[in-house]
Amino acid sequence: MKSGCIIVKENANVNLEVRSSKSPFNIKKILGVILLAFFGIYAVIQLYPLFWLLLFSFKDNQEIFGGNVLGLPGVWRVSNYVTVFTSGNVGIYFMNSVIVTAVTIAVSSVLLSTCAYAIVRMHWKLNNVFLTYILLGMMVPLHATLLPMFIILRNMNLLDSYWSLIIPYIAFALPIGIFIMTGFVKGIPKEIEEAACIDGCSIYKIFYHIVLPLLRPALSTVAIFTFLSSWNELMFANTFISSDRLKTLTVGIMSLAGQHATDWGAIGAGLMISTVPTLIIYILLSDQVQKSLIVGAVKG
């Protein structure tokens, strides 16, 4: 009888567990739905400004100030984009930004990767002091360097040229880039480089054929940071560049604002044009950035 009672109790417990698992009020499912709804609302909040800017770029002043600020445009004015490319010279400003940003990313990537490798792998007397000196650049505010940079560039006859922007952008990209790259270089096993050295590889072949491919996720992360800081920079571009043919996109869009009247739809079109490359760069490099975050999490 006792064994029968035990079996009955076990069957009852099993039935209760089955019923609880089949219950429509499953706590895990409810929490999953709430979490999904939260992230959905958060995504809408984050993406709506971009969608609003797209709608804004197809409107005119009358529609913008007439009460239809958030809604769809009554007439989709593609002429705003034609205006910024013809009358606003946005095409020239866009190419100037591409040239400055591309050179900045290329040169800074080479410098910070080689410098980080030299600091971590090549043991010399002042490598830690040198690293600390470079990282101090992260503490220097951008505005504090405006006047010294202007005097230096003027004495070097580099004002009103691409180099007046490229050199400061590279200088400010190195500290954060070296900080990220040194952490990744430390995570690369030394045995890989030692095996390559035994096989007869020189230090240059070891770096370019073995170490550098392993640093692609970190380089992609640094490239995105460098792109954003260079592409959206306004203060240096507005101070060091005076001729219209060398103005970057941020300064060019700012110049679209007239003294007495402003075509806000055209400005919205210019802002939308300047936003598209940022989205493309992030989409192309997002996989590498995710890999860098995963590697950092595993190492931690």
What does the model show?
With 300 residues, this protein is mainly alpha-helical. It has two domains: 43-77, no CATH class; 89-299, MetI-like (MetI-like fold). Helices cover 75% and strands 0% of the residues. The protein contains 14 helices and no strands. It has helices at 2-22, 27-56, 61-64, 79-86, 90-121, 127-135, 146-155, 163-187, 190-198, 203-214, 216-231, 235-240, 249-255, 264-299. α4 crosses α14, α5 runs antiparallel to α13 (249-255) and α11 (216-231) runs antiparallel to α14. The termini are far apart. Residues 1-10, 16-21 and 296-300 have low confidence and may be disordered.
Any idea what the CATH architecture of the largest domain is?
Orthogonal Bundle
Order of helices and strands: HHHHHHHHHHHHHH
Low-pLDDT segments: 1-10, 16-21, 296-300
Mean pLDDT: 83
Largest sheet geometry: none
Which structural class should the secondary elements be placed in? mainly alpha
In the CATH hierarchy, what is the superfamily of the largest domain?
Answer: MetI-like
Number of strands: 0
Radius of gyration: 28 Å
Distance between the termini: 58 Å
Would you state the CATH class of the largest domain? Mainly Alpha
Tally of separate domains: 2
